[in-house]
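Lab notebook, bench 4. The sequencing result for the construct came back, and we need a structural model before the next group meeting so we can plan mutations. Quick request posted to the team channel:

Model the 3D structure of this chain.
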Amino acid sequence: MPPTTRPTDILLLSDTHAHYSLIPEAHPLPPASILIHSGDLTNLGSYRDHQRTFSLITSHPAELKIVIPGNHDLTLDSTYLSSNTSPYGVFSTAFRGSEPISAIRELWTGPEAQRHGIVYLEEGTRTFRLRDGTAFTLYASAYTPEFCNWAFAYPRSEDRFSSPAENPVPRATTAKATADRNGNGTEQLVEQPGVDIIVTHGPPMGTLDLAVGAHNDGGAHVGCEALRRAVEQCRPRLHVFGHIHEGYGAVRRRWDGKEREEEREEEGVKGENGERRLDVSRMGKELLEVGRETLFVNASLLDVRYRAVNRPWVVTVELPVDEEKRRVEKSREDGQ
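Done. Here's the predicted structure in token form:
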């Protein structure tokens, strides 16, 4: 029987902020089947910034390109644009008059974006299927705890990610699965992730979220506690985010009830285009245990001083194969 999963390369980007140096001619993006950008496409949401980032993303040949906005992408948050409750809100209302708001949204959701395989999401759960039969579920959220009245914000006391929230993160379930990595062997009860991939702009509390600065006395964890709980209850294969530039990196977290000693930093290896490559599929050195482990990646390309010094991540993970595709492959095997 063909394997139930397939190793899949995913290119991870975040917090590009339309930086002038991030152009395809200067920094060609490494190949991958899926591209994910987890927000802060721009500095303040200008059409020019959006066009620059759109050009970067559409330069890549990935079949599927998943894009969410972040707190800096002011012109994509309609609720924020209509707010006059703060200096930023007043500014954004004035800004709206000088920027083509509808054209900006059309850039990410219109026919040209669709032609390039771009799927723009702000919050919710979606299922995707690639041409090779890879099929996976993904939860996305552009929202981060309120800070200095930026866009896509919610009160830090609010639990936006668990029921009865409007778009909760799906929980893991217990199901029967085969014992080995190729889909063979004795069935056993295992935790099945609520979704395969989580994409948020901000980090969960305590994971790649250490912010440094004058007001933090050397550093403070600023991620979202409610998101941390939701991710633990979901147990995805991969959680990618950005927002905290100085948190750039990757860690592997084991969900067995133990504390921080079960979170391990992953450095990856340098790829041909300077990217950081990390293989947690059956082709790599250490297969990610689905339902028991999650790979977290902070993919911020800019550092805390907004310099484009970080490199993109390309991670290889096992993603499910559509049942119909598996039946076709089995029929071919049987016919040989």
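The longest strand covers residues 5-13.
Will bring this to the meeting.
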